[in-house]
Amino acid sequence: MNIKLNTDEHFKKSNISKIKSFRKRNPSTSALISGIADGDIAALSRAITLIESSNENHRSQAQEIIDHCLPLSGQSVRIGITGVPGVGKSTFIEAFGSTLTKLGKKVAVLAIDPTSTISKGSILGDKTRMQELVRDPNAFIRPSPAGSSLGGVTRKTRESIVLCEAAGYDIILVETVGVGQSETAVHGMVDFFLLLKLAGAGDELQGIKRGIMEMADLIVINKADGENLKQAKQAKVEFSRALHLYPPKKNGWITKVLSCSATEHTGISEIWEQIKIYVADNKRKGTFQENRKEQNKYWLLQTIDDLLKQEFYQDKKIRAHLEDMTQEVVQGKLSPFAAAERLMVLFKEK
Amino acid sequence: MNIKLNTDEHFKKSNISKIKSFRKRNPSTSALISGIADGDIAALSRAITLIESSNENHRSQAQEIIDHCLPLSGQSVRIGITGVPGVGKSTFIEAFGSTLTKLGKKVAVLAIDPTSTISKGSILGDKTRMQELVRDPNAFIRPSPAGSSLGGVTRKTRESIVLCEAAGYDIILVETVGVGQSETAVHGMVDFFLLLKLAGAGDELQGIKRGIMEMADLIVINKADGENLKQAKQAKVEFSRALHLYPPKKNGWITKVLSCSATEHTGISEIWEQIKIYVADNKRKGTFQENRKEQNKYWLLQTIDDLLKQEFYQDKKIRAHLEDMTQEVVQGKLSPFAAAERLMVLFKEK
After folding, report:
1. What is the CATH architecture of A73-287?
2. Which of B160, B300, B328 to probe by mutation at the A interface, max A CB count within 10 Å?
3. CATH annotation of A1-71
4. Per-residue pLDDT of chain B (350 residues; tens, 9 = 90+)
5. What is the DSSP letter of A72?
6. Is A74 in Cβ contact with B332 (below 8 Å)?
7. Hey, are the CB atoms on A336 and B70 less than 8 Å from each other?
8. How do residues A116-174 score in pLDDT, each as one tens digit?
9. How far does A10 lie from chain B, in Å, by closest CA?
10. Do A299 and B206 touch (CB under 8 A)?
11. CA dihedral (B4, B8, B13, B14) positive or negative
């Protein structure tokens, strides 16, 4: 869905007053829905705040908004971006996002960082690192939602994608830190997964969790500039060779390696070209749509699983016995299977 | 636990009559337990059959046996062996197992193959492929248990490990086919994970699931003989280079690449040497014991998860609505989270 942006002065003024009104009072659900459909950033922000709220009324209001936005969603290209801290994710997103908005795209930047409660929003929290993009009227930036469980944070981000799409964003960038389990979650909600890397004295893989390289649809060696240029070229060759040893993906795609300099804005367009080829190729083969259907199914099963576990582990009787039983199992005194069955009997007693 | 094998004629005779008695009637639980503790193969076989039975009485008898065997278990080295069909797993296990028994080790060979119900025991089912090992008094070979769910098959194999260890087997080899989810399961129940590969014209990775290479503690290029020798050497170099790009494992181990010829019995001892180094190294650092504790905990949580899902998906109301809801979710008409919550409400209604 492409919403044509009206840039005349009158619109600007009316839009500003609208933003203010969304901020001032509690807007109605229907006002938020039509605001989102109109591409209104304040309505979108407010609705995402409802998604992120722990208040029960907010949650049900959010659910209603999502239900109405679902038919308007699904038209974007969802791109996951990961890499260890220091690889230059913010600078890359700034450069990549600006390139896309210059092509007339509307770009939303979301994040998943389950640790952000502790680190107080380590990724995207500091919007000043994206000075250009944050002022871009065609870009929408939202930091990672807070939350203690990955499941909760994931859900909030995935629901935010629906709202951003309904608001007419063509490209959704989902940023994550390449050190935890959040990569699998992000990989399960995007169409394309991009891994940022650094070239350097053998430390280019430090801190990257095992398995992430296999998820990547594209590896980009960042900071390929100045003195790093030679090393970046070498790293490109090495990674290409290593990737050659992997089997091709289910959709037939063979992961590519590119290099770029986010600060010097070189190599950025080539990345977008690759993604366009990937999307066109997979849409033609039907694997793009197929992947999204599988992702929807995956999230249904995953949420059922999460809710079942929540019921179980919050049960008083389970909480009273779990620790002791776990110790017996860990020490090899009780079989894990026998322990699980005993706990299940406890759980089912009413 | 090392059970000294009495090889005099008198013992053999009494042992044979014992085996016959275990086969003929339904032995008591206590007879089976003491039989296993004595290293009696017939008692062990019979007890594993009870583990594999779907009969409720058999299951509870099996549980009692496992509870008694647990204190006797845990002394072996558990080795997972995987590789695509055609890589020569049976021939390798025959050669590797025989090498170990010649060193005075008692070797048990188990298997996990959730597809064996369909393929009628594709792995280990045809014991004739291990002609030498099957006749070896210090080897015990048991095909993959039948079962429709990976969870069930996994559980049976893991419980069988406990019994084999209680029966004095020093080395447990767990075979699996390198094409499905069973590798993760096997990886989660062994101390050492060995991936068999073939050298060859670019097809050395065909059919191997993504992520398996990262699980391996050792990659062995099999069929390194005759005309293959040169290619095997080349593959060894390539894999070593690729592995160099991975981060080291949590326990500090760096995956090695070796080559062997199972048919010509070359390179087999070197594999065992590597495993001994790995075990000694990890026992010294405490990571061997730590890993087993983590595995016990993992299986407890995994089994709880399996049992919860079983309850849910076998529920009549869930079965009545799941398919329709899934379709709505897959088609993007209903959010996966909303669908999961609606189903959960149904499930909790009594």
Report:
1. 3-Layer(aba) Sandwich (3.40)
2. B300
3. 1.20.5.170
4. 344 434 344 444 444 555 555 655 678 999 999 999 999 999 999 999 999 998 889 989 999 999 999 999 999 999 999 987 788 888 999 999 999 999 999 999 998 876 644 444 445 555 556 888 989 999 999 988 877 677 778 889 999 999 999 999 999 999 987 556 788 889 999 999 999 988 863 444 444 555 777 889 999 999 999 988 998 998 888 888 877 777 778 898 989 999 999 999 999 999 999 999 999 999 999 999 999 999 999 999 989 998 999 899 999 999 999 999 999 999 988 999 899 999 999 998 86
5. G
6. yes
7. no
8. 444 444 455 555 568 889 899 999 999 888 776 777 788 899 999 999 999 999 999 99
9. 37
10. no
11. negative
Residue A137 near residue A188 (C-beta atoms within 8 A):
no
**With a cut of 0.95, is the ipTM above it?**
no
Q: Which of A249, A297, A340 is nearest residue B307 as measured by Cβ atoms?
A: A340
- Residue ranges of domains in chain B: 1-72, 73-285, 294-348
DSSP code string of A124-167: SS-GGGGHHHHH-TTEEE-PPPP-SSHHHHHHHHHHHHHHHHHT
Fold of B1-72: 1.20.5
Residue B311's alpha-carbon distances to A66, A348, B339, in angstroms, are: 30, 10, 18
Q: Which residue of A has its CA nearest to B75?
A: A332
Interface check for A248 against chain B (CB to CB < 8 A): the answer is no
Report the amino acid identity of residue A196: L
Contact A340 B247 (CB under 8 A): no
Instruction: Yes or no: say if B274 and B282 are a contact pair by the CB < 8 Å rule.
Output: no
Helix (H) or strand (E) holding A78: strand A77-83
Which CATH fold would you assign to the domain B73-285? Rossmann fold (3.40.50)
A vs B: CB pairs below 8 A = 163
Of the candidate CATH numbers 1.20.1250.20, 3.40.50.1000, 1.10.287.130, 1.10.8.640, the domain formed by B294-348 belongs to 1.10.287.130
Q: Which residues 6+ apart lie within 8 Å of A115 measured at CB? A: A122, A177, A180
CB contact under 8 Å between B333 and A71, yes or no, is: yes
